[in-house]
Design brief:
The chain has 204 residues and is an alpha/beta fold. The protein has five helices and nine strands; from the N terminus they run H-E-H-E-H-E-E-E-H-E-E-E-E-H. The protein has one domain: 3-Layer(aba) Sandwich (Rossmann fold). Strand 2, helix 3 and strand 3 form a beta-alpha-beta unit. Helix 2 crosses helix 3. The chain binds inosinic acid. The site of inosinic acid has 16 residues, from strand 5, helix 4 and strand 8.
């Protein structure tokens, strides 16, 4: 019945389940983390961060575009005042596989020397992106740099990066939603969902 609705409204339509929980289209295999679970985890992370950074004038640095939605929820759940900024990076390679070569498309607006910086990322996969960014930011002499990631795929790690605040450890599956995309699609899904491998197999 869901797939009939997709046919009716077209391929880019997200059709809500009867329960209102899972938006689906023909390339979504299943919901991995429902919105309610994300909301709860974001609160827990925000409280831990607020406790650790009390009195420290924290700067949260979100990695665009994937971390945008996570970051927006995280800063609003924080119980301390935080400043935020964004970086945009592009990883050379196909849409589903990181190459490890990272180009900065948009840098932070703020000077971070002497600041406590928390990098906010959607998912740590190979770790290559964060490893590269950590090196760049450390060279700017911040008071501290730490990492907060909503999702972690440890089985895919190529370089060891210290994830200080981690939301969910997930299996080696390509996920979309809650800011994460495949070819710029699916970012606005409220849940984290597994994309069918067939949807990206040709891009590898
Ligand atoms: P890494 O450099 O391999 O750790 O990859 C980090 C980046 O790859 C993330 O910020 C995402 O943009 C992208 N990425 C890795 N896994 C996924 C996924 O399952 N879904 C969507 N994007 C992903």
């Amino acid at each position: 019945m869901l797939y009939d609705k997709i046919k009716e409204y077209g391929p880019n339509t997200f059709v809500k389940c009867e329960e209102g929980a899972a938006p689906l289209d023909q390339n979504i295999e299943r919901v991995l983390i429902p919105k309610a679970g994300i909301d709860q985890k974001v609160k827990e992370l925000a409280l831990a961060i607020s406790k650790d950074y009390a009195g420290k004038n924290l700067l949260m640095a979100g990695i665009l575009k994937g971390a945008m939605i996570f970051m927006a929820d995280l800063v609003r759940a924080a119980t301390i005042g935080v400043q935020f900024d964004f970086m945009a990076v592009s990883s050379y390679g196909s849409s589903s596989q990181s190459s490890g070569v990272v180009r900065i498309i948009k840098d932070l607006d703020q000077n971070i020397q002497g600041r406590h910086v928390l990098l906010v990322e959607d998912v740590v996969d190979t770790g290559l992106t964060l490893n590269y960014l950590l090196e760049i930011l450390k060279a700017r002499e911040p008071a501290s740099v730490a990492i907060c990631a909503l999702l972690d795929k440890p089985s895919r790690r190529v370089v060891d990066v210290p994830v200080d605040y981690n939301g969910f450890v997930i299996p080696d599956e390509f996920v979309v939603g809650y800011g994460l995309d495949y070819n710029e699609q699916y970012r606005n899904l409220p849940d984290v969902c597994v994309l069918k491998p067939a949807a990206y197999a040709t891009a590898k």
